[in-house]
Amino acid sequence: MKVSTVAIILAVAPFLSLAATETPNTISRPKDYYQGKPPKYQFPNRGNRKKVDIRASCNETDDISAEFLEGIRKANNGGTLVLKKGKMYVIGKKLDLTFLNDIQVQLDGQILFTNDIEYWQNNYFPHPFQNSISFWQWGGKDIVIEGRGEINGNGQAWYDGFAGKQILDPKNTYLRPILFTAVGATGLSVKGITMRNSPCWTNFLADSTDVIYDDVFIEAQSINQNRPKNTDGWDTYNVDRLTVTNSGANIGDDCFSPKPNTTNVFVQNLWCNGTNGVSMGSIGQYPGVMDIIENVYVQNVTMLNSKNGARLKAWAGSNVGYGRINNVTYEDFYVDNVDNPLILDQCYFNLNETECAKHPSEVDFTSITFLNFSGKSSAKRGRVTVEAVCSENAVCKDIYMEDINLHSPSGDPAVAICDGIKGGIGIPCLPANHTDAKAALKDKPKPPTATGT
């Protein structure tokens, strides 16, 4: 399904509010909660540009990488590379496109990467964060990619080859390319296109500023039991001033997930299906390294059939790093069939409670605001719809929630669990060891009652 303008409908049937509990509603909405938007970036005038055409591929193995690179060089410094509707452009060689200046790519056709796994696992652009690799890398200044075409990662062969493996397994050697990587870009706009079937993350933005996505749809689907893994919609590293609007993702991992040292982010009108949520992080992974995520505003999200809704995630355990997630606002968030509609997780990655208690996270969560959450969970966590459990080794304060109207198929009342937060949070909340909290976690939906005739 192509999403041209994502319609986010937040007018839903009323749901019961969280039950009154021992923790009183002791604070009011912060007067200065973050609603920032990066200043509008001024691209050069795009009128009267020279147009550059290249030949299209004859079939899915007809590699035109050399022609594509030549077309990019000709269109650079004020021109437009035209990729025509109904035409396929096959890329079978890695491409370094970090020299760009004032270029537009009119993408109305299809860019298709070959599925030559042996070649790509020996020819790629590496990035040290989580051992990432890329087919190509874009960079430079004033780069515009727009149209109604698609970039296709030809991911099925990669989904099959990665079956049973995990990306963060230190023994994993099966590296998979990211569909679109920008490194050192200033002024990058991606608009109107579809990004389909990435082998791994879909977008990875590193060491870049003033990046804008609008009206972009991301999808990763398998034709067999080997599901796409780690096909995040947007990931970032050392990025300032990022805007994502009117976009959607139908994938198997984080819908949107800024990672270390990402600041001044604006997300509005986002539709996510089958994802791991709109996540801040993870951060704090690498020993002795300080990471930050700061100044983020996420507004008007529809989250369907997902593991998480709004999530903050930080690493715990021995030999990890530290840092902060600060000044983040989620507002107008609708969920349906979501395991954890609202969750603060300082026990990432796959860490058991004993190990997490032994080596708590040192990532601070401060000035985090959640406003107007509605919809229903999956009941995987029983009647619990909010879990905000913070580390004893970190600062967790100025966490505020308002108009949290979440329902569980297990029945009412819905329950919020909170631990380790300094001060009130604005809604009633139970500690994790409370009898009612434990009971709420065990509640499962009752099977439908059979009716006679």
TrEMBL record:
Record flagged with keyword Glycoprotein: yes
Entry GO CC: extracellular region
InterPro entries: Glyco_hydro_28, Pectin_lyas_fold, Pectin_lyase_fold/virulence
GO terms, molecular function: galacturan 1,4-alpha-galacturonidase activity; polygalacturonase activity
Annotated function: Specific in hydrolyzing the terminal glycosidic bond of polygalacturonic acid and oligogalacturonates.
Name under which the protein is recorded: galacturonan 1,4-alpha-galacturonidase
Top EC category: hydrolase
Signal peptide positions on this chain: 1-19
Family, as annotated: Belongs to the glycosyl hydrolase 28 family.
Record organism: Tuber aestivum
